[in-house]
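so my prof wants the structure for this chain in the tokens format not the other one, which i didnt know existed until like an hour ago. anyway here's the sequence
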Amino acid sequence: MNDLRRRVAAACAVTALLVLVGCDLWIAGVRDWWDRHSLTGSVVSNLLVLAVAGLIVDEVVARRQRRQRAVSVAVQGLIVYGQARRAYAAVTDGSVADLRSSGATDELRTLAGMLLTASPNLFDDPEARRFLDQVERFSVSLFRSISAAPGDTHSPQGVERLASEMAQLKATVEPLVARIPTEDRLVLEGSSQA
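here's what i got, hopefully its the right format
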């Protein structure tokens, strides 16, 4: 909402400045009025120039902050995705007895903690929000699978369902990963695969 207000204010200030300059150039009555009221003309023109300059600088700074925040949110999303992959591997690779052991439950607890920490930052960005929704659904499925009856955990349907959800999670993280510069992405993806 602030972005819209800032852009509308900048457009209004630029339009007012252009209208005043155009009227001064082409309408003799307006030019004569400004000549007779030089102090008023000076104050109005200085305020409009200041408003245009301030709004343009404000927009440039806001755009730079949005771009930097987008990369920061993407990095956080990639870190959460890496933990989701580790939790998925712990749940699907372990035997039935191992699922309730410390390995899989520790990975799921770590994922839950990461989600609680990262949620406020991921919530405001539309692409990150879709990823957050998907990773929350995926983590619930992982929790269900370790708390399921021993035979249900590694059933073909259960493994297939988790694999399908993991593929959906990968698809929702891709737009976030694309924001990260290539050299940084390679480092982050390498550490998330470890």
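also thought this was worth mentioning. The chain has two domains: 2-63, 67-193.
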